[in-house]
Predict the 3D structure of the following.
Amino acid sequence: MSNNFKLYDAKLLKCLELKCDNFDIVEEILFKIVKHNINVTIIEIPYTFKKRMFGKTKRDIILFMFTFLVTLIKLVQSNTSKISNK
């Protein structure tokens, strides 16, 4: 999820109110950019991740999976609650 380079148009980021403070912020940014900008185009350039040769990851995979799931639930709930309140 976070082993790549991302380039954003500053105009799209400035209006976002971000709440995540972990690796899950990537999903929040993408979700909110697409939600607020229907005509935006997201382009993914494939990347082959090579096995780490030295050191070890700082990411706790269990914590990452949990926070990722919680973030997705929050984003979906916030989106559906705003739709139902209109």
Summary: The helical segments are 10-14, 25-36, 61-85. The chain is about 50% helix and 0% strand. The two ends are 33 Å apart (CA to CA). Residues 61-85 form the longest helix (25 residues).
